[in-house]
Amino acid sequence: MLARHRQLLVTGVFVLDAALIFASWVAAYLIRFHLLPLAAPLGIPPLRAYLWMGAVLTPVSLLVLRSFRLYRSARTARLSQELLAVLQAIAIVAALAALGSYFLRGEVARSVLLLFAVLAAFTLCLSRVAVRSALRALRRQGHNLRHVLIVGTGPMAAHVARKMAQHGDYGFQVHGFVSAAPRAGGSAEVGGLPVLGDVERLPELVEMTGAQLVYLALAREEHEAELLALERLSDSTAAVRLVPDLARAFTLNASVEDFDGMPVVLVTESPDQGWNSVLKRAFDAVFAGAGLLVLWPGLLAIAAWIKLDSRGPVFFAQDRVGLNGRRFRMLKFRTMVPEAESDGAQWTKKDDPRRTRAGAVLRKLSLDELPQLWNVFVGDMSLVGPRPEQPLFVHQFRASVPRYMLRHHVKAGITGWAQVNGLRGDTPLERRIEYDLYYIEHWSMAFDLKILALTVVRLFRDPSAV
User: Fold this and answer.
1) What is the pLDDT of residue 3?
2) What's the pLDDT tens digit per position in 72-87?
3) Is 440 in contact with 411 (CB distance < 8 Å)?
4) Which end of the chain is more exposed for a tag (fewer CB within 10 A), N or C?
């Protein structure tokens, strides 16, 4: 029943948002001028003026929220993406309100704007969490379901059905599969669900099952059946969803973008795009800069120790390959004798005879990596990411290790997911690539913080440090 009133639900959320925005504005005024012990040099402005401002701000806020597509039915969308969109929208609304205040000669207190932004962001996010939780609870009980047919009988179609079964709170009820061509031998099943017919009978099957959604999950070689299915569904009321066959493509953070009205599948994409890129870069710059300021006495002491311990420079600079295959000069404290690579680049080995006395200790404690804080500060590296390799090794590995170059879709890091799992130095390359790609696929700031914490915890007990 609820599925038939989806528009009513969207309207309800729209009205709720309007009420929360207006209430947040009024609450910001009351908190600032009647609850907080703050002086009001120009006196307390009348509530009536702020009510009029709220009446203008509310529809503007709704238009901004609508521009972020927050009033569309998207039961499979991630909650984190929705909440981020809400926060971005409220930031824009607050900026517009501040601009309006400027033209009104500062009649709106800046503290009210700040309080409004905090209250509106909190209440709107909380309401969305509550609405989503309520809807998912209803779907788990068998309400608000959307009836589904899946066109295809191969592994991808079975995978779509399994995903829907695993996420019962999304509210999908799969009635069965539709084969690309007539099947001989009568009835058949895929994953315990029946194959109801072939694409020629699609309109009839939609009517028979009451399907509201049809997922096309066909292999690339079945493109003719896909075209036929789209043709047969052209006069159907069922909504059509196309699942692209990427089984033979190496995917990394795959998604879909709009290119002037044309959908384009992004097969391999860096996770730190847009706001993510700004957030990660700001985090790197702040903490790398702070690290250099706090650690400079220790860095100076290490430099003096290296100089006294052996002849040669304090720092070792070497070309490495980073983001998008770009080369940069990576800095380290020198831990080997000056002629260590006179015979060419080599992997560091356990108890490497080329190490100096100071170098053995620095490598064991990973202190030789500290100068890379400068690489992070200037933007060549990140605090967390795949470890960069020399161009010679990159050339070798890309020819022999599948998907090796995908690790260059993010900035190289001082530490990474592979390193905190003991994969450093002369360890299996395939395993390191596996961990690097896992990091890229599942990147988040929380994941970065976890890796940094594990780096500190494991710093003094890493058997792979050489």
Assistant:
1) 44
2) 767 777 788 889 999 9
3) no
4) N
